[in-house]
From TrEMBL:
The keyword ATP-binding applies. It comes from Haloarcula salina. One of its GO terms (molecular function) is ATP binding. It comes from the Archaea. Residues 261-270 have a biased composition (Basic and acidic residues). The keyword Lipid biosynthesis does not apply. GO terms for cellular component: plasma membrane. SMART domains: AAA. Keywords: ATP-binding, Nucleotide-binding. This is ATP-binding cassette domain-containing protein. InterPro entries: AAA+_ATPase, ABC_transporter-like_ATP-bd, ABC_transporter-like_CS, ABC_transpr_LolD-like, P-loop_NTPase. Residues 10-241 form the ABC transporter domain.
Length: 276
């Protein structure tokens, strides 16, 4: 982690965002400490991606402010660990990772890359951390979906930004690879704040220390994972499915399977539910 940015809190202070007059986020206030692992869950259309895009600087709030250590958050402070599949197929895994040093904007990479140092060592170390040391010279086109995802994480982390955001990093992976993605993120993070949107609530509860529940653009709860109950999740997903105009209702169906400790201390996954 960059020394100069260590120890700074990411703060959302009364943040609202509207699209075409419709509120996507309403009066969101939260504080995130360095090194925290936070999962954002909620029904489709809740505002989860909007929250990440605001934190990354890709969107500006209509009201409120987002700061890191008291200063407006900037693109240099934040990296997107995963936002869909954006590797360059014809380039090697290592070249894709090293291209991350010039930022998240893919079209700028071609112009800026010649200007950054060519030392491959940080890229090789990150590929090793995500379990792909042997694939450094493999072209991205030859990698599996899970391997591509891991290369994308390594590419994001090579920038050494103090805030790491991931939007549905388990999307498009088979169930056995999803938990592995969280392991990979854990393995490569070193004191950075991680805020990730996860559709799988069970995975969020099992693997993240703090859970933010968003519905209809509002924070419905913000609790340690151990404090999140089935009732809170039922309310969260019911809220997202019952907007008056029905705009979000069809897409508001979401699945959650929450791992809860039983009386003998063992974890058991509750029934998976669908919300309409
Ligand atoms: N660029 C945009 N222009 C217009 N409306 C938008 C835009 N981005 C988001 N919205 C709207 O804002 C609301 C929140 O969208 P957002 O993508 O943040 O939700 P989400 O919780 O990430 O949903 P999902 O789980 O389906 O990805 C939705 O009603 C969406 O249609």
């Amino acid at each position: 982690m960059a020394e100069s940015t260590a120890g700074r809190e990411l703060v959302f202070d009364g943040v609202s965002k509207r699209f075409d007059g419709e509120a996507a986020l309403s009066d969101v206030s939260m504080r995130f400490a360095p090194g925290e692992r936070v999962a954002v869950v909620g029904p489709s259309g809740a505002g989860k991606t909007t929250l990440l895009r605001l934190a990354s600087g890709a969107l500006t709030p209509d009201e409120g402010a987002i700061t890191l250590g008291g200063a407006p958050v900037s693109g240099a402070d934040v990296t997107l660990a995963y936002q869909g599949e954006t590797l360059v197929d014809r380039r090697t895994a290592l070249a894709n990772v090293l291209s991350g040093r010039v930022g998240d904007c893919s079209w700028l990479r071609g112009f800026l890359e010649p200007l950054v140092p060519r030392d491959p060592e940080p890229g090789l170390e990150l590929l090793d951390a995500v379990g792909l040391a042997g694939k450094a010279d493999a072209r991205a086109a030859t990698l599996s979906a899970g391997e591509r995802q891991r290369v994308a994480f390594a590419r994001a982390l090579v920038r050494d930004a103090p805030v790491v955001l991931a939007d549905e990093p388990t999307a498009n992976l088979d169930p056995s690879s999803r938990a592995n993605v969280v392991d990979v993120l854990d393995g490569v993070l070193d004191g950075e704040l991680l805020v990730t949107v996860l559709h799988e609530v069970g995975l969020a509860l099992e693997r993240f220390e703090r859970i933010v529940g968003l519905a209809d653009g509002r924070v419905r709860f913000d609790e340690p994972a151990a404090e999140v109950t089935d009732g809170m999740l039922d309310d969260l997903f019911a809220a997202g499915a019952s907007t008056p105009d029905g705009r979000r209702s069809a897409a508001g169906r979401r699945q959650h399977g929450a791992a809860k400790p039983t009386e003998d201390g063992e974890e058991s996954r509750t029934q998976v539910r669908w919300y309409a």
